[in-house]
Amino acid sequence: MAMPAAAGASSPTRQPVPASLTRAAIFLVVTINSGGDAVAKVQSLCADLAALLRAVGFREPRENLSCIMGFGSEAWDRLFGEPRPAELHPFREFRAGSRHAVATPGDLLFHIRAERMDLCFELAAQIMSRLEGAVTPVDEVHGFSLLRQP
């Protein structure tokens, strides 16, 4: 899936959804604040996320820094309007056997991955700096793997 182009941007940027697993990850969920220039700030980040990713990751290209930005249904409508993806809907709680996925609040999801946590942390900090005052953090989860399987 391609990230939508923000107003004035030339074309969508493909996101590395099928990228290989890495040793470190941050899942960052935020809600977009109402009023002010919140929507414009988020749209600006959408247009610049690929450049921000390159700026942080260029120093360590072998560390496989990547970022996927996901949009909630209501956020999509506020940011981009029509047309919207055909199957985009508010996240619903569901259960499958012993597994349980709760319906959590959030407008944007950033799934940041790299071989080293410091790169994930730096990109998350840069993203939140760009969105300062425009979003409210809802959840931040850090993941890592200590062992590599051959």
What does this structure look like?
There is one protein chain. The chain is α+β, with helices and mostly antiparallel strands. The chain has 3 helices and 8 strands. A 4-stranded antiparallel sheet has the order 4-7-3-8. The protein has a two-stranded antiparallel ribbon with strand order 1-2. A two-stranded antiparallel sheet has the order 5-6. The radius of gyration is 16 Å and the shape is globular.
Summarize it.
With 150 residues, this protein is α+β, with helices and mostly antiparallel strands. The protein is built from three helices and eight strands.
Quick tags:
alpha+beta; four-stranded antiparallel β-sheet; two-stranded antiparallel sheet; 3 helices; 28% strand
The residue-averaged pLDDT reads 86
Low-pLDDT parts are: none
**Which oligomerization state do the chains in this entry correspond to?**
single chain
Note the main sheet: 4 strands, antiparallel
Number of strands: 8
Query: Which sequence of strands runs across the widest sheet?
Result: 4-7-3-8
Globular, elongated, flat, extended or rod-shaped: what is the shape?
Answer: globular
What is the CA-based Rg, rounded? 16 Å
Tell me the span between the first and last alpha carbons: 30 Å
Helix percent reads 25-40%
What is the succession of H and E elements?
EEEHEHEEEHE
By helix and strand content, what is the structural category? alpha+beta
Strand content: 25-35%
- Helical region count? 3
